[in-house]
Amino acid sequence: MAHEIAYVRKEMQAQEPAPQKSGSIALWLRTNLFANPKDAFLSILAIIFLVWAVPPMVEWLFINAAWTGTDRTACATIAQGGVQPDGWSGACWAFIGAKFDQIMFGRYPDAEMWRPILIAILFTALLIPLLMPKAPHKGWNALALFIILPIFAFFILYGGVFGLPVVDTSDWGGLMVTLILSYFAITVSLPLGIILALGRRSKMPVMRTLSIMFIEVVRGVPLITILFMASVMLPLFLPEGMTINKFLRAIVGVSLFISAYMAETIRGGLQAMPKGQFEGAASLGLGYWQTMRLVILPQAIKLVIPAIVNQFISIFKDTSLVSIIGMFDLLGIIKFNFTDSSWASPVTPITGLIFAGFVFFIFCFAMSRYSSFMERHLDTGHRS
């Protein structure tokens, strides 16, 4: 006799309470800050610290700050020869306002300031579409950003053509130098790092040995040494009467330095690739370079995106070391202006350093956020 195995509900299920709104503030606080006693204790400590630290910081940075002025009197107390009351303490944003052009462009002539501004606009207009995954014509966009724009920017910024007066690179400075050095270092280091990583894994002894020697030698010395080598010793090896612009030497030195580290980052991604990927490509009849270009490198680079962006952020900050060889980047030009006696006050240096730190943070945070966005966009193989 067959048994009935089907289940038929005889009565209605009891009504359950309505779920809490997932976006409610109470639920977010309970989930993220007060999920258990330990989280609640640490959250309370953090809140107490913020209540203690943030109001004085806001007061010093904004409420008591001196926003306008033409010299140090705006940021000095009466006892120090200024206009502020005795005991006053606040940020000297008037110093940043007065030196803003120098902080952005160094000693670039005021009459020619439109030239770096034009390059900045073109760079932004080409960079934004390249960063958008769904933007069309990526190939042409990359060609314009990485090939055409640098050549055009050099002739516009340096001059000597199109009737433009020459502005020597010794007059360049500020954020412009920081961005140019970072741009070239990032642009050169990624492809060169890929070549070095492939060379280190090559089966050809000469290629492997040369790649290993370059990587280990460059990684074995600090960036300061590389910059000194590029700035001081490189001209000694050139033919008599031949010289290389100091700014170009710095670009080459920084680019080679970060390339060695980038090579090891890329090599880590290559080593993480399973052997089956190579075998699958070989079964399709793909050659070595086709396998690398179409199968291996896209996956390997995706795996090490956080490490690559970490290298980009590191080199963006390390460009401040070029001040050692007499070049004034963002931090260098700010520190140089501390020597201006017309702005000498107790709060001027810390205000300038806070502003420099804020600018560095904005760029580094933007790179970090875009890295997270690209990880989520490319993480198609692990989505449920």
UniProtKB/TrEMBL annotation:
Source taxon at top rank: Bacteria
Membrane disposition: Multi-pass membrane protein
Entries under InterPro entries matching the protein: AA_ABC_transptr_permease_3TM (IPR010065), ArtM/GltK/GlnP/TcyL/YhdX-like (IPR043429), MetI-like (IPR000515), MetI-like_sf (IPR035906)
Domain named ABC transmembrane type-1: residues: 175-371
GO CC term (a single one): ATP-binding cassette (ABC) transporter complex
CDD domains named among the record's database cross-references: TM_PBP2
GO biological process, one term: amino acid transport
PROSITE patterns: ABC_TM1
UniProt record similarity statement: Belongs to the binding-protein-dependent transport system permease family. HisMQ subfamily.
Protein name: General L-amino acid transport system permease protein
Organism listed in the record: Martelella radicis
